[in-house]
Write a structure and sequence with these properties.
The complex is a heterodimer of chains A (354) and B (384).
Chain A (H helix, E strand, L loop, with lengths): L1 H15 L37 E3 L2 E3 L18 E3 L7 E2 L12 E3 L7 E2 L12 E3 L18 E3 L10 H4 L7 E3 L23 E3 L18 E3 L7 E2 L12 E3 L7 E2 L12 E3 L20 E3 L27 E3 L24 E2 L5
Chain B lengths: L1 H12 L12 H16 L3 H11 L28 E3 L2 E3 L18 E3 L7 E2 L12 E3 L7 E2 L12 E3 L18 E3 L21 E3 L22 E3 L18 E3 L7 E2 L12 E3 L7 E2 L12 E3 L20 E3 L27 E3 L24 E2 L6
Parallel strand pairs in B: 2-3, 3-5, 4-6, 5-7, 7-8, 8-9, 9-10, 10-11, 11-13, 12-14, 13-15, 15-16, 16-17, 17-18
Antiparallel strand pairs in B: 1-2
Classes of the chains: A mainly beta (354), B alpha/beta (384).
Amino acid sequence: MKAVIILTLFATVCYSKPFYQKGLFDFMLEDDGSGTDIVPVDVPVGPTCPFRCQCHLRVVQCSDIGLEQVPKNIPPDTTLLDLQNNKITEIKEDDFKNLKNLHALILVNNKIKSISPGAFASLTKLERLYLSKNNLKELPTNMPKSLQELRVHENMVTKVKKSVFDGLNNMIVIELGTNPIESSGIEKGAFQGMKKLSYLRIADTNITNVPKGLPASLTELHLDGNKIAKVDSDSLNGLNNLAKLGLSYNNIISVENGSVSNVPHLRELHLDHNSLTLVPAGLNEHKYIQVVYLHNNKIAAVSTNDFCPIGYNTKKASYTGISLFSNPVQYWEIQPATFRCVYERSAIQIGNYK
Amino acid sequence: MKECVLFYFLALCSAKPFVLPPKYMALTDLMMNDMDDDVDDDNDSDDDDDDNDRNSLFPFKRNMPLRPTLPPFNMFPTCPFGCQCYLKVVQCSDLGLASIPAKIPPDTRLLDLQNNKIKEIKEKDLQGLTSLSALFLNNNKLYKVHPKAFQSTNKLRRLYLSHNQLTEIPANLPKSLAELRIHDNKVKKVQKDSFKGMNSLHVLEMSANPLENEGIEPGAFEGLTVFHVRIAEAKLTSIPKGLPSSIYELHLDHNKISSVELEDFIRYKELQRLGLGHNKIKDVENGSLAYIPRVREIHLENNKLKKVPSGISDLKYLQVLFLHSNNIGKVDVNDFCPPPSKMKKSLYSGISLFGNPVKYWEVQPATFRCTLGRNSVQMGNFRK
């Protein structure tokens, strides 16, 4: 009886502490053999940790253990669940049912083909969902409204439907790279409602255009490794906050006049490894641009006013990186005055590096 | 020892309340909190080093790169292109990077480089990242790590190197490591000095490597207090004997272990969870389990056992025992539960016996008198 009372006290004290420790450190709460009187009897005390996982400070780490499905008995107050590098093929309706406190769910590098439509619905606090390296053909539906970051890199997604992102007004980061997405598969306005979206990456896909109707909140847009042949000025229209634009490794022949001025706060523009024959127009009037990568293109001539303002220097941030190497233009054909607004010599790479 | 436990208990109970992190930074903060806590749990040797540095005549470490002063109107902080940098977290996963990017902010605490094509960690790649506490390099093409690559990262706690091409555990890893994951590489050897001085290493995951018993050099784990060791999917033919005596979880599933011998667990008195599923175990030697009296969970499924290992009924705290898919033809009424004179301290919550030749009607109901309930036993020869 005494033992039971002591045990009860012990258990109460343990439950009252601000966060409980299980897994890695719960051995510290166990007896060490010398005090065999105080030992949990009959019922296992507190939530258990799935076998082979490590549970520590509400983080449940189950990566690399060959799981074929989401384990049962995940502690209900888990905030981070790492299931990466397993062999999970399917996410079922009830797999995450009780995890109301989950903030981050990492399912990277599994074999997930299907996700039950309601699987994420109960995760009302989920902020990060990492699904990269799976076999998904579609983006999951009914993602929680709390979601801020979605990574679906390297899957088999072909379409981006508007309904998928409907109501996800807290989204900040979306990574959709390395998927067989086509431009026609991106539904018009698919990203439009996400008023906080800051980072969007659709790299290494099959898209042929810069998607239209992107939210004005974007600060970074990465579209490298696609099949874009032309940058239309209206596709960048309204992106007043865009600071970084990645368009490397496409087939871009021209950047339409007005494109650069449509993104007034751009500071980094990567256009290397394309088929440009001219330096994009408008750089000389741009006040904030600092980095322009143009290497590995077909630029045969550079004019004195391509980069710097015509009159006195109106730039508000100076260039820190301009690359022009691996273009047909020879460095001796570029007049030194072309870079009159650049104060740091090392900012410019011209020589035909070979 | 008792005092020690009490001390930990007090420390845990009086730990600072878990403050909910600001919305967007939840993951980051979780990881950070975690790390902070880990640091708090340790003895302060690391911190002492730092203090020495701070008090020295030279305020910066010698290896601190000289960062050029930024031009007067560069109003933006640097972040490698394509990466996201926020609150000391640098997120550069899935970018197809062929090398570790330059210009990583020197105050970075978490650097996520997973899912790229990085082949090498070069001498200067991590230079100056003295605040780094977590580095994720899993899923790359790493085959080479410069022996001085980790020279300045002396606060690194978590290092994830899984899914790469490493043939050995990189030399001179930081002594501060608490978690090292090197799953699915080509490691054949654990050198004697691989983990030397890693006094706070708690988790070691090195499964899916072509590691044989002979590949573990004697003394490789000497002085370590690792709690969780996993060497699954390797080429082990017996239970390694030189692992740290502190281990609390040991996972050796999917190896080629053919038997459990008498003294295999003699050093592992703290063991609570033992995973030996998917091996070729024919026999668990009588008395071998008596060395792990505190074990709570044993997985022996998918082996070649002909009977329930002897000594099981003496394990007072054993709650879960998986024996399915073996060759067990007979179960005795006293295989699992102690005689009434001896008390079992915790009842079984899971026993599995399906996939064995034994028929359920041949097992006496009293065999399971010390289980929590009916659902605790899975008998039926699950075959459809």
